[in-house]
Amino acid sequence: MRVGVIGRTTRQAHxxxxxTAADLRAQGFTGCHWTLTQPIxxxxxxxxxxxxxxxxxxxxxxxxxxxxxxxxxxxxxxxRQAIHELELCCKATRVLGAASLYVRPGSLNSTxxxxxxxxxxxxxxxxxxxxGLRQVAKxxxxxxxxxxxxxxxxxxxxxxxxxRDVIEAVGSPALGFCVDAVNFVRGLDELFNTTSLIHKxxxxxxxxxxxxxxxxxxxxxxxxxKMSECIIGEGFIDMPLVLRRFQExxxxxxxxxxxxxxxxxxxxxxxxxxxxxxxxxxxxx
Length: 285
Known about the structure:
With 285 residues, this protein is α/β, with parallel strands linked by helices. The chain has one domain (2-278): TIM Barrel (Alpha-Beta Barrel). It is built from 9 helices and 10 strands. The chain has helices at residues 18-26, 44-56, 76-96, 123-143, 160-170, 188-191, 194-205, 239-249, 265-278; strands at residues 2-5, 31-36, 60-66, 101-103, 147-149, 175-179, 209-214, 216-219, 227-230, 254-257. The strands form 2 sheets. It has an 8-stranded parallel β-sheet with strand order 3-2-1-10-7-6-5-4. Helix 2 links the parallel strand 2 (31-36) and strand 3 (60-66). The longest helix has 21 residues, at 76-96. The chain is globular, with a radius of gyration of 18 Å. It starts with a strand and ends in a 7-residue tail after the last helix. The model has no long low-confidence stretch (mean pLDDT 96).
């Protein structure tokens, strides 16, 4: 099991230098993300340079991250565009040598992929998602790329059961699951007992796990239920369990800290390292 971070890297290929890798290694990271902002016009030479400069410094692109595209759109033209972009991202992911390509399920909410909508979990929405994923997965298979599909309570993949069912319906060996326990917490009952939720995630979806997004979650002092992300170790996520269960199913996979500004990443890394020690595990190089 390896550790990386989403953030702390430039979006411009020409700005990646040996110091980029050195800075990541100095904080204990062996993996990072790379944002694929322009897959259609991607310069393969530039991507290879990013891969090689980072690799020379002991860092791998752990996850390639595309821009927001909508696999569940009712607009057929928009869905075709989303599929096409992800197909191109598969090629870019191969060139980067990235461990996985991050895939969002999308949303019918026009304000963003991770926003709720009353029709997100309807059968027709899930059928569109499955059709789109099947097409992308075929290209991923041909490129030798692993897809890391993520879910969340606000998305079409709102439960561990739904994640499992969609992955099995797609039926591709290239389609895996990006574990993110925070995303599936629906209320205080689950927040105060994330151990049960995490076991359920791995019991149902663990065989497909290819990456972990690591963050923490706590409640806000308010008259209505409000929760917010926080630094790892300051919330209620049973992170030692997340790591132990991931080690069992994907011992060579990456655990990626996310959603924090650069200045808070060191504290999150310390929290994650403490969880790792509590779990009786060590990071691989």
